[in-house]
Amino acid sequence: MPPRSSWTGFCGSWVMSEHKPLGGLFTLDYGLALPAEQRSGHGYPVFGSSGQVGHHRDLAVRGPGIIVGRKGTVGSVTWSDDSFWPIDTAYFVRPTTALSLRWLYWLLKFLPLSNLDTSTGVPGLNRKDVAEISAFIPPLPEQRRISEILDTLDRTIEATQRIIEKLQATRQGLLHDLLTRGLDENGQLRDPERNPELFHETELGLLPREWEIQPLDTIATVSAGVTLGKNLSGSGTIELPYLRVANVQDGYLDLGEVKTIRVLAKDIDRYALQDGDVLMNEGGDLDKLGRGAVWRNHEGTFLHQNHVFKVRPQPHALVSEFLAFIGASPYGKRYFMGIGKQTTNLASINSTQLKAFPVPLPSFQEQEAIVSKLLTFAIKLKAEEARLSKLQALKRGLMEDLLNGRVRVPLVESDVEEGHADRVPESSVSVNPTDLPQYIPPQPPIAAHAPMYRAATGAQTKLTEWTQALAQAVQGQQVGRYSPEALDAVLPELLALTTDRRGVLQVPEVLAKAGIRFMLLPHPSGSRANGAAFYLDEEHTQPVVGLSLRYPYLDVFWFNLLHELAHIRLGHQPVPDESLEHYDQQSPDEQAANQWAQDKLIPPRMWQAFMNSEEQSIPKMRSFAKKLNRHLSIVAGRYGHATNDWSRVNPPNIRPGVQSELLELQKRLVGDD
Q1: The domain that contains 116 carries what CATH number?
Q2: What positions does the domain Type I restriction modification DNA specificity occupy (predicted)?
Q3: Phi and psi (nearest 5°) for 27?
C-alpha cells in the first residue's frame, strides 16, 4: 500500500504541486460524552458519527463547525451552522491556521475518509492518519470562491429535491382523485360536494354514477407464464428472453438484466408478450403483489415467467395504462395485500383472485383522458428527477476538479490586493461563483421565453402555462443542431411516415435529427389549442414543436405538425404572450403556415388535378393517396375541409382515430418503460 501522505489510490493523482499535510491546517478533537438520557431535548444540536442525534441546552463547541465520524460511521462529515455538542463517537474540527472553514468542509466531504478505517471490530478513524494526508491547498480567497460555487450548487440540489418530494406527494393525491372522481366532459375533476347527484355509493366507496365495477376477467384475459425447471432441448425448442418478478417494478419495467429460457416452439404464442399487455406480479414481498407495468414497444419475442401474470385488456374496453394505475393506487395495493397468501418469506396471489379484482371502470374515452393527465404529471416529475441527476453529476465533477486543483478559480482584483496574486496559475479556468450556469451543461430552461408562443387555432391566456409545461417536458431531449436546411433534409423522411398510423411514433426521432424537440401534452381545459411552436433561446436555435391531443385523427395530427413546423421553417416572428387572447388566426403568418402544410402533404398541382377530375369517390381517393404515398385520411381530410362534405369521409376506416397511438407516443416521450 503506498504511503498515505501521497493519497495515491484514494483520490487519484493530484495534478497541481501545491500540497500540504492536513495536519498543518487543523486538528481533530474528541467529542464529549453525553448519553441520550442526559440530553435535554431542546437547545443546541447534538452530533454523533452519523449526523445529528438530538438537542441539548448546553453547547460544547461554538459554531459554525465541522463534525467528523470517529466510531461507527467512519469518516462521515457533517456541517453545523449553529454552536453544537459533538459526542464521543465523533471528532470536531479545530482550525490551526487561517482558512475557509466551509472550503475545508467540502474538502473533507470529497476525501474518502472511510477508507482509513483501521479497526478490526467497531469501525474507527485514527486522527493521525487524517493529519498525514497531503491535499491541494489553494490560497484563502480561492478557497472562499470554491466554497461559494459548491454551496450555490448544493442549494440548487436541495431545492430540486424539495420540488420532487412535493410532486411525489401531489402525485398520490392526484392518483386518488382521478381514480375515484374521474373527469367530466370538460376535462375537469367531478366534485362530489358540489354535485353529489353525479356520484353513488358502491362496494369500493363513492364513485361517479357513470362508472361500472367489473371483475378483471370480464374486460381482460389473465394468463400464467412459463414454469422454470424443465430441461428442454432439441430441434423443437427455442431459447428466448423472459421477464421475472425482478423485472416488473411499480409502474415500470427494469430490463437491466433479462434471463433466457428454452421452451417448446409450439408454446411461444401462449407465453409471448404483445404490445399493451399488463404484467402483474404473482409473488414476492407482500407490498409487491399485483404491482404492474405495461409492455410497450419492445423489439423481439419476450416471454413471462409463471410468477408474473400477463393481463391482456379487451380492445376499447380497458386502457392498459389505466389498469396499471389502478393496481398501483392505494385501493389496488389494499386489495392485493388483503388477499395475499403469506408464507415465511414470501406472499402470493393466484389467478382466480386476480381475475376477480374489481376494476372501477369509466368509459374507454374517460380512461384515456385520465391516463393522459397522469402521464402529463409524470413528465413534470421525471423532468425534475432528470434535472436532479444532472446536478448531482455536476457536483461530483466540480468537487473533483476544484478540490484537487485540476480547475483553478482565478482571483478577482480584490483578491489580488490581499497579496495572493502570485498563487494564481497563468493557465486557469474562468469561473464565476455567482453565475452557476457556466458550470451546468446546456439544457432547456424550465419555461420558454415569454415571446415565443404561437397557437394553431384559438388561444387564451391559459396557453402560456401549457407552453411552459411543453418547455419543461422537453428537457433532456438530445437533438442535433437546428437549421432550415436541416429541417428540409428530414422532410422526405418525415412525410414518408404519413402512410401508416404507427408512423406517428417515429416523429420525435426524425425531428431530433433536424434539431427540433417534440412533445405531446393535453390541451389546457377551456382552450382550443392544437399546437405550439416556440424557441428555448433568444437566438432561435432551439425550436420546440408541441401538439395537443385535441381531435386525435391521423390527418389532423399531420396537418397540425406541418403547420407548426411551417412557423419555424418560414422564420415567423413569435407572438407575445400578452397578444395571445386577441391573436388573429387569419393573419398572414397563419395563412402562410396553413398553405405550407397543405402543399407539403399534397402538392398543389396534384391536388388541383384531382379536384378537377370527374369523380372524387372513396376508391379514387384511395388510389390518389397511394400515388402520393400518403394515408387515405390525408386525402379524405383535405377533401372534407375543401368541400365541407364530412359525412362522406368521416367513417373510421377512412379517417381513423389515433388516440391509442398518441397516448403510446406520449408515454414514450415521458420516458416510462
Answers
A1: 3.90.220.20
A2: 18-168, 208-391
A3: -120, 155
